[in-house]
Amino acid sequence: MASRLEAGSQVAESGLPEADYEKRELLRLEAVERFARGDRTECVARDLRVTARSVRRWRRAWERGGMDALRSKGPASVERLSPAQWDRLERELRRGPLAHGWDDEFQGWTLKRIKLLIGRMFHAGYTVQGVWKLLRRHGWSAQVPLRRAIERDEEAIEVWKAEVWPQLKGPRRTWAPTSASRTRRDGG
């Protein structure tokens, strides 16, 4: 987990930006208007670009609890780490797994390793899925290796890309469809 996503966007506790809650709620409330007019589920789903299953679920909730049943309830979970604890965890993650005793061949962070680190540092229990949500909530993305092999030859790679790969790949196909009919040029 090495790179950061866009910084500065306000993110809710569940990992979604606050604006997404509002957008989703507006979408559900638009569906309610369509339900009241008697629009069919498939039409509502197509027009709102959501699944028919979601629309059916929204319709059932609306029939049971009215418009209030489709209003956003906010984040589903509350973060257990304080801002100071998160800052400390982030510093430790930047130090790398080797600094925390993982000295095997793979020198990257895994969700399981981060889960164990959180447990050691803060005595807080997270599931692997919970760790992923925590990291995503704070703008961390999937790990991209920072190190390259010592033997890596950049010049050889560029030559291979420029000369060898185009030969292996073959010519580009045209966008135009081809004819499947049997025709002869000589007219016979």
TrEMBL record:
Q: Which residues form the Winged helix-turn helix domain?
A: 105-163
Please name the InterPro entries in this protein's record.
Answer: Homeodomain-like_sf, Winged_HTH_dom
Q: Where does the secretion signal sit in this chain?
A: none
* Full protein name: Winged helix-turn-helix domain-containing protein
Organism equals Streptomyces ehimensis
